[in-house]
Sequence to fold (148 residues):
Amino acid sequence: MLNRLVYYSVRACDDGEVIRLAARAAARNESLGVTGLLIADRTVFMQILEGPRALVSQVFASIARDGRHTDVIVADVSEIEALSYPKWGLALLNDREKIHAIWRRVGGDRLWEPRLLNAVQLRALFRIAMADAQRVARDAPALQVVMA
Ligand SMILES: Cc1cc2nc3c(=O)[nH]c(=O)nc-3n(C[C@H](O)[C@H](O)[C@H](O)COP(=O)(O)O)c2cc1C
Fold:
């Protein structure tokens, strides 16, 4: 059974650490058959993980214990028919202008606050971010995509 899990959290590490952790996470996810996208804004992380249920749970359990963020809130857990991002262990979106442009498409002019979005809006946000990631990965990486 395949599951999707979305959470958001309060970021507690700098940009260099985010890139390092994303590179390791991408390799680990790929070896497990888990895929995902991490959005790293200045103060907030948002991540979607997809894969076999037990493995998504296992990866999320170690993420939830990680001291590089706090206040981890699960926003969506659901069964899915197929992976949305089969190509990646993990893509990282850390371009703030891009993040905020996507946010405005989904959340309008409200403050950049993941807790203001419902599960459907969160899914839309990740769908747009991932379409972007796939487009940019083919061109130039203004968006940083970390691949295993
Ligand atoms: C915001 C954030 C996202 C992370 N995403 C992943 C991930 O997708 N996959 C992964 O294996 N580790 C991820 N990690 C790292 C894990 O928390 C953890 O450090 C790593 O899995 C090693 O876990 P362990 O020390 O319990 O073995 C993430 C950490 C943070 C702070």
User: Anything to note?
Assistant: The CA atoms of residues 56 and 110 lie 31 Å apart. The chain has a mean pLDDT of 88. The two ends are 24 Å apart (CA to CA). Residues 119-138 form the longest helix (20 residues).
